[in-house]
């Protein structure tokens, strides 16, 4: 990783700053001390003829004095390039545009605290700001990665900076007004700077800046522009653009740096923010991730040797530091087999060393003799003491009349919780549709569920349904605990409450005869995770899935229905979404309510601790504080989208649950999957907002999905 080395403002870092910043890492750079490349970091490529993925993050723009809720994000973009050993890469890491507040004198500090409306009043009276100006945010600096070829600098990758915010937020602005990220991939298009008004335009790749507030282009040195003279004259409001060509602020915001700089407003409009810059990918590289406005602070650069993990069973691998070759990684609990490709679950402890054979035989003999004596004595005593009790308990457990009577006389009550449709109400068997066992036929086993086997079957005698109707049949073993019976019944009650085309329907139950059955509509397409993995592209066989297939509007509709009915699913994930078929016309449905069922158990938060929770699909407030709301499902839906666009990869690759907890609570979020469109990743990041109130509801998510498919 390459950073700003702790530098901020309009000028770049020094060698001493970067030496200190990288002292605990293997990064070594030379920082240019003078000339037009002052502050640019120079890095020598260590590997030979390696494909490297370079990820660049532009810096965010500065906040306005009374427009400080959210800054304009710097752009993230990633591409793959072929690098040569000892090649020099020049890296300018963009720095955040300066914020207007707190200001340097008492008057500006009053404005920042909301105690003065001097600028608004002046603007309201005169419709211009000749006397009083300032309070806008500086433009964010772009991040440039370039090289020298035949004595000429050649841009490889440029991540644009965000525009500075204006003094005030426009009253009619909304998320829909945010422009889509743009990038160029042709050097034939001039890399010019943005237009300068009262505030400075952002610097481009190669241009000439004539005004002090304009951000300088890369080949001019990339310094940020200074604040406009009106702001400096009256209020001494010195809000500069960030290093990397960020435009200086006036009352309007400065433009962001980029291959082409962002424009500033022609007039010093009190609500006119600076535009973001335009990013760039050299056509000699292959774009890996399209641009997305995602950076909230200074820029960064990551250079990562590309690893092809497609041969690994787990799809995860890392580079061995000794051999420099990719080594497959397995998920927690699994180990790499001898073929170095597949993952297996160990059946027993793995020997760590060789024990001498005579010693081993002696130890085994002693253990066998002592074990036999103790076992025989213990079994004899227990057998005589417990024979009658065990026989009575066995007969009682095998009695269908006893078990059914226990269920019939049990009313399942829940503590009051406004988030559940069962709140404070008794759930009884009378709410379920009992189907006689003679009407049900089992055809073949489909797999093993949470309670017992799941079968494909048919049922007759259902009014209004085809005769016979194909169903999936969940079974409960004849010998089971009372808690398993309660859980089995609760799942049937939950599913039976819903009536929506994107939620698996409960056809009925059969509880009068052992083993007990829950009958669900048959989802012949299987689970979504398996479907996605089967449809990954292969050699000479590209994936046939379209954008419409990937945007899982069906699941969003089902989640909207649950949200409107104040029900929280708690485990929206690809493994819990089922498909009616695998061909054209398939419909996706929410099909597993195990987590929703388990919250009715008193032992829910004690059973297994965090191990039983789907941590990789949960927001921070859920796994830290046990708080579940409809916005919990919003977060999970964002992870589901990531699963879909990665075609079934495990979220947070190579991270354990504990590492995910630490990563997410510290503000970390997953990068977009390869070739994921920017607007789709924007939906994901909105779903992953730290504060639940900032996450969209499912009505808004459906609107965003509709926009992505236009």
Q: What does this protein look like?
A:
One of its GO terms (biological process) is regulation of cell population proliferation. It comes from Buceros rhinoceros silvestris. With 710 residues, the protein is of the alpha+beta class. It has helices at residues 15-21, 106-112, 118-126, 229-234, 357-397, 400-408, 482-496, 528-534, 547-550, 553-564, 594-598, 620-625, 630-645, 657-665, 678-687, 698-708; strands spanning 30-31, 41-44, 50-57, 74-83, 88-92, 143-149, 152-159, 183-184, 279-281, 286-295, 300-305, 317-319, 326-328, 335-336, 343-344, 440-448, 453-459, 469-476, 506-510, 516-521, 526-527, 577-579, 588-590. A 7-stranded mixed sheet has the order 1-2-5-6-7-9-8, with no helix packed on it. The protein has a 5-stranded antiparallel sheet with strand order 16-17-18-20-19, with helices on one face. Strands 10-4-3-11 form a 4-stranded antiparallel sheet. A hairpin with a 5-residue loop joins strand 19 (506-510) and strand 20 (516-521). It is globular, with a radius of gyration of 32 Å. The two termini are 37 Å apart. 42% of the residues are buried.
């Amino acid at each position: 990783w390459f950073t700003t080395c702790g530098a901020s403002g309009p000028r770049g870092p020094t060698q001493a700053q970067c030496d200190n910043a990288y002292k605990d890492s293997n990064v070594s750079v030379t920082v240019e001390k003078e000339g037009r490349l002052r502050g640019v970091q120079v890095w020598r490529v260590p590997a030979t003829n390696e494909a490297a993925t370079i990820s660049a993050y532009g810096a965010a723009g500065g906040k306005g004095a009374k427009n400080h809720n959210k800054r304009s994000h710097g752009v993230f973009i990633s591409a793959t390039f072929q690098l040569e050993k000892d090649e020099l890469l020049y890296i300018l890491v963009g720095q955040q545009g300066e914020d207007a507040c707190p200001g340097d004198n008492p008057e500006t500090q009053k404005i920042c605290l909301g105690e003065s409306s001097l600028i608004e009043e002046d603007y309201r009276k005169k419709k211009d700001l000749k006397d009083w100006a300032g309070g806008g945010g500086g433009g964010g600096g772009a991040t440039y990665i370039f090289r020298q070829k035949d004595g000429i600098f050649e841009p490889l990758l440029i991540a644009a900076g965000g525009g500075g915010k204006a003094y005030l937020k426009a009253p009619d602005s909304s998320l829909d007004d945010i422009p889509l990220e743009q990038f160029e991939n042709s050097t034939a298009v001039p890399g010019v700077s943005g237009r300068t008004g009262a505030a400075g335009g952002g610097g481009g790749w190669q241009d000439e800046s004539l005004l002090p507030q304009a951000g300088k282009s890369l080949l001019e040195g990339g310094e940020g522009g200074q604040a406009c003279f009106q702001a400096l004259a009256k209020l001494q409001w010195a809000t500069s653009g960030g290093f990397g060509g960020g435009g200086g602020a006036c009352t309007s915001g400065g433009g962001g740096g980029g291959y082409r700089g962002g424009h500033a407003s022609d007039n010093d409009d009190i609500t006119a923010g600076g535009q973001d810059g335009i990013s760039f990918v050299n056509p000699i590289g292959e774009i890996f991730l399209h641009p997305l406005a995602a950076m909230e602070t200074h820029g960064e650069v990551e250079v990562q040797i590309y690893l092809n993990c497609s041969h690994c069973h787990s799809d995860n691998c890392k580079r061995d530091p000794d051999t420099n070759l990719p080594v497959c990684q397995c998920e927690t609990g699994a180990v790499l087999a001898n073929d170095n490709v597949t993952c297996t679950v160990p059946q027993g402890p793995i020997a760590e060393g060789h024990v001498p054979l005579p010693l081993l035989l002696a130890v085994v003999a002693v253990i066998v003799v002592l074990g036999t004596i103790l076992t025989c004595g213990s079994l004899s005593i227990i057998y005589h003491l417990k024979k009658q009790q065990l026989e009575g308990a066995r007969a009682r457990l095998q009695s269908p009349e006893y078990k059914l009577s226990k269920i019939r006389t049990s009313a399942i009550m829940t503590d009051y919780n406004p988030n559940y449709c069962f709140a404070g109400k008794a759930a009884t068997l009378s709410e379920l549709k009992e189907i006689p066992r003679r009407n049900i036929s089992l055809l073949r086993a489909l797999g093993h569920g949470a309670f017992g086997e799941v079968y494909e079957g048919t049922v007759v005698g259902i009014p209004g349904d085809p005769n016979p109707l194909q169903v999936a049949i969940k079974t409960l073993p004849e010998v089971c605990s009372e808690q398993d019976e309660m859980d089995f019944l609760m799942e049937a009650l939950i599913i039976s409450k819903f009536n929506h085309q994107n939620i698996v329907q409960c056809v009925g139950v059969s509880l009068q005869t052992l083993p007990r059955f829950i009958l669900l509509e048959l989802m012949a397409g299987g689970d979504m995770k398996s479907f996605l993995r089967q449809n990954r592209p292969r050699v000479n066989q590209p994936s046939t899935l379209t954008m419409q297939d990937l945007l899982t509007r069906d699941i969003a509709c089902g989640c909207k229905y649950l949200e409107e009915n104040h029900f929280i699913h708690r485990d929206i994930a690809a493994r819990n979404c089922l498909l009616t078929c695998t061909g054209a016309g398939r419909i996706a449905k929410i099909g597993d309510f195990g987590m929703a069922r388990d919250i009715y158990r008193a032992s829910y938060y004690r059973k297994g601790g965090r191990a039983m929770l789907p941590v990789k699909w949960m927001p921070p407030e859920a796994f830290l504080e046990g708080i579940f709301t409809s916005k919990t499902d919003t977060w999970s839906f964002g992870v589901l989208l990531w699963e879909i666009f990665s075609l079934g990869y495990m979220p947070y690759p190579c991270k354990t649950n504990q590492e995910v907890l630490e990563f997410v609570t510290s503000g970390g979020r997953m990068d977009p999957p390869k070739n994921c469109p920017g607007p789709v990743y924007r939906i994901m990041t909105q779903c992953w907002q730290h504060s639940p109130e900032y996450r969209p509801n499912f009505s808004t998510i459906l609107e965003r999905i509709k926009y992505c498919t236009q």
